[in-house]
Amino acid sequence: xKEKQGPRERIVSAAGSLFYRRGFGTGIxxxxxxxxxxxxxxxxxxxxxxxxxREYVERQKEQILGFLAKLIQxxxxxxxxxxxxxxxxxxxxxxxxxxxxxxxxFAAQTLEKKPEFRDQLGGVLLEWQQMFSDYFAKWQASxxxxxxxxxxxxxxxxxxxYEGNVQLxxxxxDAGYLDAIEADFVEMIRST
Length: 192
Description:
The chain is about 75% helix and about 0% strand. By secondary structure, the protein is mostly helical.
């Protein structure tokens, strides 16, 4: 039997879904309507919408980086890792549940007016890059090669391939850009 969520968890869940699908411009009343919580509950847990935004970024970080860490652990070969990751993204896209990178979207929607989010988003980016850099270092060591490209460069390029192709997919609606994540990544690995 599923445990009933309290008001805080319902608010966070509703905000997470709405911020990802519709953006940070989503109104408080929409969040309250979807969560079934009262305004007093919202402000008890989150004195401002910015506080709710920070919680959203933190939850996305836990979910996405947690998922990627598990995938990395299960797939020591980077080609297998990227193939699995892209399969998940494509499945979400087919189900109309993929709206891009939540961090890039949130940054695009907030940083001009609310630069205070930059530190938190920058921290997520650094953590993500470090995770990938550690992964590539371990992979290069298992291949008994140092590679022409450092693990840190591979990590940065991986994120650039992901973010760039995702944005092109969102702009065009062409799922070929999701396939290009894997193709571009494999080409990058071949050249290392």
